[in-house]
Specification:
Chain lengths: ~250, ~210
């Protein structure tokens, strides 16, 4: 019985979010609403410009979020950002590289980079999307040479990382590369706050698409996130008040 | 949109909707279809690991043949990978070879990962010091002060032992009240972000399976 009720609540939440997203996207199809400033994305846009101008390379690290686990959402957000960044840097001298710590994610990164290369009518390098290791530290150790040896000037860490992300941000710092980093893992977020030049905290990781290339559905998804957040705040406060009043 | 892209988008969105519906609506045919799709995904993921390892091998062989920087390490990696792979293949036919894999894991993998963990401790200490230099703000100061208080409250000081008030009262308040509250807030944000990311994929706005 409890499972059924929880299932219904979950379904209602997803359905509500989907309806709101479609409605906001439709209502705002002609104009993009102003978004609150996230300095990391503003600086990332500038860094992408530099990548194109000075002929250096962009490195996107997608983490280890397997697609059949709850961590897949951060990996999907990373892949979506990879596609946008690959499009933006397609006019540069060097194609971007993507490293990941999961086989399926590596294949998807290759497919994403291939799609971007085909759209820009450029030759695709199959080694641009790489699996660098299957354990947290082997993944980090395998990705470090890509940052160090391949003329990388901008590193984006976006996906599921653990504390090993600090090794990547440190390598990026040593290579004097600009680094934006976000993870869905709490420990990694704390580590990235200290070590990354531009850390992304909490849900900022999932809003990359809307900030890099605003589209109605992207910005609508951010509005839905805000609406649901206020709904949760109201429920939490209401529950606390009811508890204090002895009604719950 | 190209036909291939359209077809992959339709298949991906339909599969996603069936799995999502099967998770919430417990109708037998939906649950069965959802379970079949998930099993296919697990099988494909396992196969993707093999392809990923093959890709890793190709990248490092390319480094060796192209005489790129760090080619020596690539030779070691390729050799180690081939030896481990062959031993793994031999084990089902010759089970006495099983300890060899265990030996490789305990002698090479474990110490290397442990030393990277130790390196991480140094890296994080350095990063914390650098944080104040790079991003001097109220939040950075709060971050460093909290780290120091938690360290002081957790690790006993040599010849002194645990610091009385910090270990008994302050550390539990910071860790179990302030940090736990903040962590829950961040986790709710992450969950909402994950939800809308999934919906963007279902709407076809984000297409991680290729296409634009």
């Amino acid at each position: 019985m409890t499972d059924t009720i929880l299932g219904l609540i979950g379904f209602s939440l997803v359905f509500l979010a989907a309806v709101l997203m479609a409605a906001f996207a439709y209502l705002r199809r002609k104009s993009v609403p102003p978004l609150r400033e996230i300095p990391a994305y503003a600086r990332l846009r500038r860094a992408i410009g530099r990548v194109v101008e000075d002929g250096s390379r962009l490195h996107v690290s997608l983490g280890r979020g397997a697609l059949v686990t709850p961590q897949s959402a951060s990996a999907l957000a990373g892949l979506a950002l990879l596609r946008r960044l690959a499009d933006l840097t397609s006019v540069g001298d060097r194609p971007p590289i993507a490293t990941s710590g999961d086989g399926a994610l590596a294949l998807l990164s290759q497919s994403t980079l291939q799609g971007a290369a085909e759209d820009a009518k450029l030759a695709y390098d199959p080694s641009a999307g790489r699996l660098t290791g299957l354990t947290p530290f082997s993944y980090a150790a395998g990705a470090i040479p890509s940052i160090r040896d391949e003329n990388v000037s901008t590193t984006v860490l976006m996906g599921n990382f653990g504390v090993e992300a600090a090794l990547l941000t440190d390598a990026s710092e040593r290579a004097n590369a600009f680094c934006v980093a976000g993870s869905d893992n709490l420990a990694a977020q704390a580590v990235l706050y200290a070590s990354a030049r531009e850390p992304l905290i909490g849900e900022e990781l999932y809003s990359a698409g809307a900030y890099i290339e605003p589209a109605p559905l992207q910005t609508a998804s951010l509005t839905v996130q805000d609406v649901l957040r206020w709904l949760f705040i109201a429920i939490l406060l209401g529950g606390a008040l009811l508890k204090v009043a002895g009604l719950l | 949109m190209k036909l291939k892209g359209l077809l992959s988008a339709v298949i991906a969105i339909l599969c996603g909707l069936v799995v999502l519906a099967g998770y919430f609506i417990r109708l037998p045919f939906l649950v069965k279809a959802s379970s079949i799709f998930l099993n296919w995904a697990v099988l494909l993921t396992a196969f993707a690991v093999l392809l990923g390892i093959f890709n890793l091998l190709i990248v490092h062989i390319g480094k060796v043949t192209g005489k790129q920087k760090g080619a020596l390490y690539s030779i070691l990696l390729v050799l180690a990978m081939l030896v481990t792979f062959v031993i793994g293949l031999v084990i089902p036919l010759y089970p006495k070879a099983a300890p060899a894999l265990d030996f490789i894991f305990r002698t090479f993998q474990l110490p290397v990962e442990a030393s990277l963990m130790a390196l991480l401790a140094v890296t994080l200490t350095y990063a914390s010091i650098r944080l104040l230099n790079r991003r001097l703000s109220v939040f950075a100061v709060i971050f460093i002060v909290t780290v120091l208080l938690i360290l002081l409250g957790t690790a006993p000081i040599p010849f002194v032992g645990s610091v009385p008030w910090v270990s008994d009262s302050l550390r539990p308040v910071i860790a179990q009240v302030l940090a736990a509250g903040g962590a829950r807030g961040i986790l709710i944000g992450v969950a909402l972000g994950a939800l809308v990311t999934g919906l963007r994929v279902l709407f076809g706005a984000d297409r991680p399976y290729g296409g634009k």
